[in-house]
From TrEMBL:
Pfam families: PP-binding (PF00550). This is Phosphopantetheine-binding protein. Coiled coil: none annotated. Residues 1-72 form the Carrier domain.
Length: 72
């Protein structure tokens, strides 16, 4: 399931285990370096490239997972 993969990536990059589907990237302390690492992980682990603008428009695990599923 895409959402599980996205959540695992976020948990690793934010170094925390308690990220929920509706947690906001920016509220978690997300910034450009973390975003770049997450983008790379999406490519390597999920096989999908997510444009930077979509990461801003879909700042939660749930919303970016839905975006990825609709563009696979």
């Amino acid at each position: 399931m895409i959402a599980d993969g996205v959540r695992a990536i976020w948990c690793r990059e934010f170094q925390r285990d308690d990220i929920a589907p509706d947690d906001d990237f920016f509220a978690l302390g997300g910034q450009s370096l973390i975003m770049t690492k997450i983008q790379g992980a999406y490519i390597e682990e999920l096989g999908v490239e997510v444009p930077m603008d979509q990461m801003f428009l879909n700042p939660t695990v749930a919303s970016i997972s839905a975006y990825i599923e609709s563009h696979r």
